[in-house]
Write a structure and sequence with these properties.
The protein has 314 residues and is α/β, with parallel strands linked by helices. It is 47% helix and 15% strand. Helix 10 links the parallel strand 7 and strand 8. Helix 12 runs antiparallel to helix 13.
């Protein structure tokens, strides 16, 4: 029996989601503009917070009208539906996604204000029953209740691909002031990273509210990366390149990641030894996961990384 080190099991998705941009669906021109943004990993057609209650029917109509014609959409296309316990969520699903030609174009679905694992399970079953199993679920955590149930939410469905932190709604629901900056929400951010990483999910950080000074956006994105987040939400096209720059690995990072994966496999699997020291540090499986993620950020597909692993076993 030949040995194999399965790289695909180390990551939830080989799809980069460094920068995620929401665009309100109440204006078709905004949908069109966002669809053509180069460098953006994921664009989310929004039916939730970005659309006033009285304009949600127009938002649904616009999405259907826009996607009914042949379109070139550069980023991954996602849709954000309203909270599952609201009447609007079923309208989002039944009026937009039951249109098969429309639904097939979406690669992922963002659920707003997730507070219970059953909400994810419900949407997952709905997608499966309607033959939309190609669509991944991204769960937005925006309330204290959602945070307290994060571990259960993370293991609620195989369709779940990422956890997203909605900081502004979380502050409001928690009564947290902005007077002392982001310090009061550090616990929430770290908790989401820990749970998402434990269940091999992507985890997307809060937005940067600065869309004029690139140095500030880059700094915030670098902080997100240092926390363990795999991406960041953006609110303006200017922020896309800033986030991509913060998450882009250097050539040295890529080479080090390849070396780490290779030596880990040879030492652990081929030679049957324990963890090995690299520059004075012990390297274990979580470090290999990070190395794989670094290579994905660097543009390598899972198949390419698997070849690196296969070569190490020879």
């Amino acid at each position: 029996m030949s040995l194999r080190f399965d790289i695909s099991k180390l990551v939830s998705s080989n799809k980069n989601r460094r920068a995620i941009l929401y665009t309100p669906s109440m204006e078709i021109k905004k949908l069109e503009k966002a669809s053509m943004l180069k460098g953006l990993d994921t664009v989310v057609f929004d039916l939730e917070d970005g659309v006033p209650m009285n304009l949600k029917p127009i938002g649904r109509k616009n999405i259907i009208e826009y996607l009914s014609k042949p379109r070139t959409i550069i980023p991954e296309l996602a849709i954000r539906i309203n909270a599952v316990d609201s009447k609007e969520s079923m309208k989002d699903l039944n009026e937009v996604l039951l249109n098969e030609s429309i639904a097939k174009q979406f690669k992922s679905l963002v659920i707003a204000k997730v507070e219970d694992p059953d909400e994810v399970r419900f949407v997952s079953r709905w997608l499966k029953l309607n033959n939309y199993e190609h669509m991944k679920i991204l769960a937005l955590i925006e309330t204290p209740l959602g945070l307290t149930k994060i571990n259960e939410i993370c293991k609620s469905s195989p369709a779940l691909d990422a956890i997203i932190y909605g900081a502004e709604d979380y502050r409001s629901a928690s009564g947290i002031s902005k007077e002392f900056g982001d310090s009061p929400i550090m616990y929430a951010r770290s908790s989401l990273v820990a749970s998402a990483r434990a269940h091999n999910l992507q985890v997307i950080d809060m937005t940067s509210l600065d869309f004029k000074r690139s140095e500030n956006v880059i700094k915030e994105a670098q902080l997100s990366k240092s926390f363990g987040f795999t991406g960041k939400q953006v609110i303006h096209p200017m922020q896309i390149e800033c986030v991509n720059q913060a998450y882009a690995p250097s050539e040295k990072d890529i080479n080090n990641s390849i070396e780490l994966i290779t030596r880990f496999i040879r030492t652990q699997i081929v030679e049957g030894k324990g963890v090995y020291g690299a520059e004075g540090n012990m390297v274990e499986l979580p470090h290999v996961k990070d190395a794989v993620q670094t290579l994905i950020y660097g543009g390598k597909a899972i198949s390419e990384i698997q070849k690196i692993a296969d070569e190490a076993l020879k």
